[in-house]
Amino acid sequence: MMFNSKDLNDSKGMPLYISFLHLLFPSRCLDCKIELLPDEPGVCVFCQSGLEAISLPVERPPHLTMDTVEIYALFYYKKQGVSQSLLHTMKYSQGRSLCVVWGRAFAQQLSLHSVESIGCLIPVPLHPKKKFLRGYNQSELIAKGILAEFPQVHLNTRCIRRINHTKSQTRKNRNARLFDASCTFELIPEHLSAYQHVGLVDDVVTTGATLMGIINLLRTRLPHIRITIFVLAVTK
Ligand SMILES: [Zn+2]
């Protein structure tokens, strides 16, 4: 898998934008620490080749039970690999620009067909306190990157709220995690009344519990709405 920020800029004032990106990104590769070229988005081309690209849409991983939902993802998530370095930086190390650029790179792999009937993208929300402490929601920035390629689609950050802090889920079994997730979110249906098809956006799917919580909520309250999932990475 090879991306550079040159691919993300076509003919619109590219040199200035690339220079700006180079100022924003760490000058060294997140994984191997080699110095980056100006158009490498946080990860050098060698380490990008370590990302296992996914053919779209994703063949559903066995631990996900989203029967009637289509899932699009960019690469597979592996612990201790470049995918982990990239996603960790996006989430915890002020990786705002990385989120947007990789969201846009993701969008460039999507066919118009996969997006054309979608009215809005819904980033998986953070609890307001967590968003305040982090300063941003990585899923929202990934969604903004996607929307840079599909400007006809709206960003919808008002229809779902996270109402509980999520504690560590590692010691809970799958049913407990799914129950927790469905109690974690609140739906405000009036902010979805204009839409028949929505896209849920997240950075990575591991257990699937968070997305299942939101999907179950949508299915219960607004069963007519079609749902497509867009995540940068998914575990096998
Ligand atoms: Zn590298």
Concise description?
This protein has nine helices and seven strands, in the order H-H-E-H-H-H-E-H-H-E-E-H-E-E-H-E. The protein is α/β, with parallel strands linked by helices. Helix 3 packs across helix 4 (96-109) and helix 4 packs across helix 7 (138-149).
Folded structure, characterized:
This protein is of the alpha/beta class. It has two domains: 1-50, no CATH class; 52-234, 3-Layer(aba) Sandwich (Rossmann fold), CATH 3.40.50. Helices cover 36% and strands 16% of the residues. The chain has nine helices and seven strands; from the N terminus they run H-H-E-H-H-H-E-H-H-E-E-H-E-E-H-E. The strands form two sheets. Strands 1-7-6-2-3 form a five-stranded parallel β-sheet, with helices on both faces. Helix 9 links the parallel strand 6 and strand 7 (226-234). Helix 3 crosses helix 4, helix 4 packs across helix 7 and helix 8 packs across helix 9. The longest helix is centred in the middle third of the chain and has 14 residues, at 96-109.
Rg over alpha carbons: 17 Å
CATH architecture field of the largest domain = 3-Layer(aba) Sandwich
Query: What's the CATH C level of the largest domain?
Result: Alpha Beta
Helical fraction: 25-40%
Flag low-confidence runs: 9-15
* CATH-derived topology of the largest domain: Rossmann fold
Q: Give a short account of the largest sheet.
A: 5 strands, parallel
Strand portion: 15-25%
Distance between the termini: 17 Å
- SS summary, helix count: 9
- Average pLDDT number: 82
**H/E element order:** HHEHHHEHHEEHEEHE
Structural class: alpha/beta
Domain count: the total is 2
Provide the list of bound ligands, each named once.
zinc ion
Which sequence of strands runs across the widest sheet?
1-7-6-2-3
The count of strands amounts to 7
